[in-house]
Structure formats: C-alpha cells, structure tokens
Amino acid sequence: MSDQLTNDQIADKIRSSALLVSLQLGSYNPVKTDKSESRKVSSSHGINDPKLMKVQKHTLPTAGVLEDISKLDTKIRAVVDKFTAPFARGIGLLPAIKFFDLRKEVNALFDERATMVKRLADEYSIYLDGAKRSLNGAFKDDDYPPVDHVVSRFYAKLDSFAIANPKDARLGVLGEIAEQIQAAQTETLNDKLSSVAPYVRASLLKPLCHLSSVLQNPDAKHFDSAFTNILEAAEQAEHLNLLEDDQINNAVFAIRDRLDRTMDQIKG
Prior knowledge:
Blueprint: H1 7-17, E1 18-25, E2 31-33, H2 35-44, E3 56-58, H3 64-83, E4 85-88, E5 91-95, H4 99-122, H5 124-135, H6 147-152, E6 156-162, H7 169-172, H8 174-216, H9 224-240, H10 246-267
Antiparallel strand pairs: 1-5, 1-6, 2-3, 4-5
Helix pairs in contact: 3-4, 8-9, 8-10, 9-10
C-alpha cells in the first residue's frame, strides 16, 4: 500500500492542478415599497412606526422575462456548483482539467441570458404600458429608471484565477478540509436519510405488506404477467430502503420467497 499524502502534499497537488472561480450574476428587483401607501395603511391601523407595515408593488407585473432570467440564473449557478467545490464565500475550487468544460457550458447559458436581457430592453416600453394598466393609480414614473440602467444591472461574469499564494492559510488546511468535507457529506447524508426515513418507510411498507399478505393467501390466483411487476416493486423498495428497515426487508424477503415457490410449482 502506498504511503498516504500529508496535508501539505494534498494542498500542493490542489494548488498545482486547480483554479479558483467566481460567478457574478446581477439582477434588477422590480418590487418597490410605496412609502405613501405604507404611511396610509399604517395610519389606518393606528401604527405609529411605518417600518412595521409596508406596502409593496411589482412595478413590472407583465415582464415575464424577469422570471425567465431568474430561472436561468439558478441553472447557471447549478452548473458552476456541479463543477466546483466550495472554497470561500462566492468562490469555488475547480479542477484545472475541467475549466474548458465549465466555460463551454456557462458561455452557452450566458448567450441565452444575453438574449433574454435584450428582449427586456426591446420590450421595456411595452412593460411600462402594462404596468400603467395593472397598477392604475399606484403607477408612478419615479419607479422606473431608464432602460439602460435596468439592463446594466444584469451583468454576468465568470472569473478564474490561479491559486498563487503558497502561504494562503486556506491552502494550509486543504488536506484537512478534504477529510472534513468527506465526513460532513457522510454525516449530512445520514441526517437527510434519517429525516425522510419515516416517509419512505410509510410509502414502502404498506403496499409491500399488502402484496406479501396476498401472496401468502393459498386461495389467491397469480398470473405470470403479475410476477414481474410485483418483483420490480419489491426490488425498488429494497433499493430505497437505505436505512435497512427490518420490516421492509422482511416483506421483500417474503415476497421473493413466495414468488420463487409459486414459480417452482408452475414449472413442476
């Protein structure tokens, strides 16, 4: 067995074969607080502090493209998360060999995003007309900056840079972090499994016990076409039984045992 690498050696390997990447996605928030209406509502309820109750309005209610951009941004972040490991706030650690794969996927999504932003710019006046109709008296010209200002908020940038500082305190413990991340992932998985176990158990155990009881009934009639479906259900339950629940295991065993004996009888 080869000697294990020290934490410093792991850090050196990461430094020499990885990059740091930072994704920046700007957005424009069309939701505004109407101060005048907020004061009126607060006063009508006898509230002296206007901060306790605010009236907000969506200034671009017909601009569905804003939601499209938001959904695409979520997709872009997911792509970056897929390729990187957390390093610092807003910064991911990327294997250098994966840089061009990441850049290719992100650039394609950036192009799609740019098309959406251009659509927002082209149709901005239409959205203003829609806001006037929807908001009626609540529409205020002051709520709407020039279109160039709105568009400028939708910046998109993927920066990458080498890990150049050998004395970076974070690099000094990368070996430990590698072990801690693995341990944390295992612990987190166990926690998640524990939290969903009652729901998985409830959804699996009831139909399995029903199938098992039906199969144990000597008067029940079974057909070849049903065997595959029942067996698939049992195998799926066994696969999902990640916490090794004994009742689920016993039900799966009973189903398999009964099916095996039934098939032997048919063949005999």
